[in-house]
Amino acid sequence: MLSSKFNLFWIALLITVVSCRKEAFDAYYGRPEWLASPIYQQLDSMGDFKKYLSCIELSGYKNTLGTAGSWTVFAPTDQAFDQFMKENGISDVSKIDAKLAEKIVRSSMIYDGERLEKLNDYFSAKGWQQGFAFRRRSVYYDFVEKEDLGNGKIRRFVSANRGPNVAYAATDNNNKHISYFFDAYMNQRGLGAIDYQSFYPNSSYTGLNVGSAEIDPARSNISAENGYIHVVNKVLIAEKSIDQYLRDNTSYSTFKSILDFFASYTYNAEITRKNEVLTGEKDSVFVKGYAGIGLALNNENYAKEDPNDAQTNNFSITVPTNEAVSNYAKRVLLKYYPQGTTLKDLFYTNPAVLTEFVNSHLYNTQVWPSQFSQAQNFVGELLKVTKANIKETKLLSNGAFYGIDACQQANVFHSVYGNVLLDPKYSFMRRALERMSMNLTLKIPTIRYMLILVSDQKLYEMGFDYDAYNTSDPIRFNGGNGTPEMREVLMAHIIPLGNDPLPDLTGKGILESYAGEYVKFNQMKMSSSGTLDGPTETQQIRIDSISIGNNLSGPLNGVAVYLNGGLTSSNTNIGFYLKNIGADQTSSPFNSFYKYLIASTLYSATDGVVKGIELGLNYTLLIPNNEAIANAVANGDLPTATAPTAQADIDKVTRFIQYHIARNSFAIDGKKTGFFQSLCKNVDGDAQSIQVAVNQVNKLQVMDNLNRTVEADVVQSNQLGQRVLIHSLKGYLKHGL
C-alpha cells in the first residue's frame, strides 16, 4: 500500500514537471499570439476573395500560401474577377480550368514578401539601392511551348533565358516580370500619367499601380505570416514576351519573318527529359535563342549582369508594320538587287544588312512614351520616327513594344558606307572594310566622307581575291596574303571631308585621302600615284556616277563616287619617280635639283631610295626650280659641283636637300598651313622646320628659318609620288645652320 502511494506521488510529480516544461517550451517556441495568419487564411477571413481563393485551391497553391514562406501577393477582389470573367467570356468561376487558375495565381505572386515602399528599391548583388526598381520577378513562367511547322509537324521549345549567343541556363526558369508604377519612382524621372496610360489606356493612373491594376491604398501592406498582401482591382495575367506577341500578331509578320532568320533552335536533353516526366511527351525539346542581333526577344531576364538587374530596366522595340517594312525594303534594303529578290535572299547573301536593320529597331533600355523622342537604339542612334508614327503601345513581360507605321532609318543605310553595304556588286569592298574595322567611322552621320567605290570585278582584275576558308588571311593578292595591299587601296578611296563642301568632280582638284596620300580629279576622272605610274591609258580612271543622299535614300554624311577601277599607291621610289616624270631632262624644272640629289650621299642608285624617307610615311618634296638652284650656287648655299669631294660641300648639299623635304604632306589646296619639320637637323639633333605661310587653291608660300618667303610654281606642283607630294619652288629655302 505504501509502495503504491509512493508510485502515485512520483507519477503526479512527473506530470507536473512535464506540464511545466511544455508550457515553457510552448511559450518559447510556439506560435506568437501577435503573429498574423498566413496569406491564404487572411484572404479567406476577409470575405471578398472567394473567386481568387477558388483559383488558389484549383491551382494547388493553397498549401504554398497557407504555410510558411515569403511572398508578395497582389490579390484581386471578387469584383475584379467578375470584370475579368466578363471580358473573357467566362460565365462562372467554376469554368476556370486548372491551367488558367495556375496562371492567374502565379502571375499575382512575386518572390519575397515586401511592403509597397520597399518595391522601388533594387536588390542588387551589392545590397539594396533605393529608388531604382520598377519591376519584380513573378512566380509565373512558361515552360515548353509548341509551334506548328506545317505538314503535321510540331516543334517543342523553351525560350532563351540569356542574351544572344549566351548559353541557356538550365537552372533558370525564365520567370516573367511584373511592372509597377509608383509616384516615388515616376516623379523622380519625370514620368507620369501619360506614360502609364499609353501602356494601359483602359486604366487610371493613381501613382499606385501594378500592371493594369490599381492598388487599394486602404488595403495594402497587409502583413501576413508568409509575406504581404496588396489588394488590386483587376486580375493580373502575365503579359506575353516580345517574341510571343509577334508570333500572334499578323500586322507585324514581315518584321517577324526577318527576326526568324536570326532564331536558333538547340536540342536540350535535360529539358526534354523533364518535359517527358511532366507530360509524358517523348518529343525533343529545343532552346529557342537568337544570334546575330542585339537582343534575345524571348529572354525575360534582361542583361543578367546582376542577378536582379531586371528590377531596374527592360528591353524595348519599335516594330514597323508589314506595309512599312515592304516599302523600306523596296526603297533601301533591296534597292540594288534585281526585281523579285526577297528578304530571305538578302539574308543568305548579305545578312549584315538585316542585322543592321533589326538592331536599329531594338533598345537595350525601357523606352517611356513621354521620352520616346530622346531614346537611343541598340546602336546608339536617336529615333528617326516620331510619336506620330506610333500606332500601338504595349508593355510586355520583357519589354516596351511600339508598333509603328514607318521604319527606323538606320544611319548605316544613309551613310557613304551604306552604298557599299547595300550593293552586292561591292561585297568584296564591304568585307574588306569590315575586316579592318574601317566601316565603323564611315557610318557615323556627323563625320563626312567621300567614299570611292570599287566593284568586286575591278578588285579581281587588280589581283585581289577573297577566300573565306583561308583563316590566316581571307583577302588574297596575287596568291598571297592581301590585307596590307587591300588596306592601302581602301585608304586611298576614303576622303575625309570635314566641313568642306562636296568637291565638284566635273572640275579639277586634289584631295587628301584617309592615310594622308593625295588623289586627283579632273573632269569626272580620278588618278593616284599608282595609276600615274602605269600606262597612259589607265592613268586616269573614269567616274561612272555619283550618289548624294536625300531623306529617302543615299548617303547623308558625304558622297559616294562609283569609279571604274581602283586607285593605288605607287611602288616606285622617289628617285626613280623623278626620273619617270622627266627630271633627268634639262627641260624639266626639277633637273638641277635632281642632279644634286642623285649625286648625293642620301641617294641609293640601285633602288632610287632617298635616305631619311621612310616607307609608309608621308612627305612633301619642295624642289627649287633650275633658276633657284643657280641662285643657290651663286650665293654659296650650294657648291658648283653636283658631286663635290670636300666634306664641307658634301654636308652643304646634304643639308640643302634635307631642308627641302618636309615630314607629312600638304597640297596646294587652300587647307594646311603652319609648321612642318624637315629632314634637316642641327648639331644637337633638333629637326629644322619650314612654315607654310599661305595656302590657297592657286597659291603657296613657304617661309624658311631666315623668315624668307618662297612662292611655289602652282602649274608644276601637286605632283603625286610614292607617299610624296612634290611642289616646284620659284626660290630656295635657307636653313640658316
How would you explain this protein's 3D organization?
This protein is α+β, with helices and mostly antiparallel strands. The protein has 4 domains: 39-139 and 177-237, FAS1 domain, CATH 2.30.180; 245-409, Roll (FAS1 domain); 413-563, FAS1 domain (Roll); 574-729, FAS1 domain. Helices cover 30% and strands 23% of the residues. The chain has 25 helices and 36 strands. Strands 29, 30, 31, 32, 33, 34, 35 and 36 form an 8-stranded mixed β-sheet that branches. A 7-stranded mixed β-sheet has the order 23-19-28-27-26-25-24. Strand 17 (390-396) and strand 18 (399-404) form a beta hairpin. The longest helix is centred in the first third of the chain and has 28 residues, at 2-29. The protein is elongated. The mean pLDDT is 93.
Give me a quick take on this structure.
With 737 residues, the chain is of the alpha+beta class.
Write the layout of secondary structure elements.
Elements: H1 2-29, H2 39-46, H3 50-59, H4 62-66, E1 71-76, H5 78-87, H6 98-107, E2 109-111, H7 116-119, E3 122-124, E4 127-129, E5 135-137, E6 145-150, E7 153-159, E8 177-182, H8 183-188, H9 193-199, E9 208-210, E10 213-214, E11 222-224, E12 227-232, H10 242-247, H11 253-261, E13 263-267, H12 269-279, E14 285-290, E15 315-320, H13 322-333, H14 343-349, H15 351-359, E16 362-363, E17 390-396, E18 399-404, H16 416-422, H17 427-435, H18 439-442, E19 449-453, H19 456-461, E20 464-466, E21 475-477, E22 480-481, H20 483-492, E23 494-496, E24 508-512, E25 518-522, E26 525-527, H21 529-532, E27 541-548, E28 558-563, H22 574-580, H23 591-599, E29 619-624, H24 626-634, H25 647-659, E30 661-663, E31 674-681, E32 687-696, E33 699-703, E34 709-713, E35 719-720, E36 724-729
Parallel strand pairs: 1-12, 7-14, 15-18, 19-28, 29-36
Antiparallel strand pairs: 1-2, 3-4, 5-8, 6-7, 8-9, 9-10, 11-12, 13-14, 15-16, 17-18, 19-23, 20-21, 21-22, 24-25, 25-26, 26-27, 27-28, 29-30, 31-32, 32-33, 33-34, 34-36, 35-36
Helix pairs in contact: 3-6, 14-15
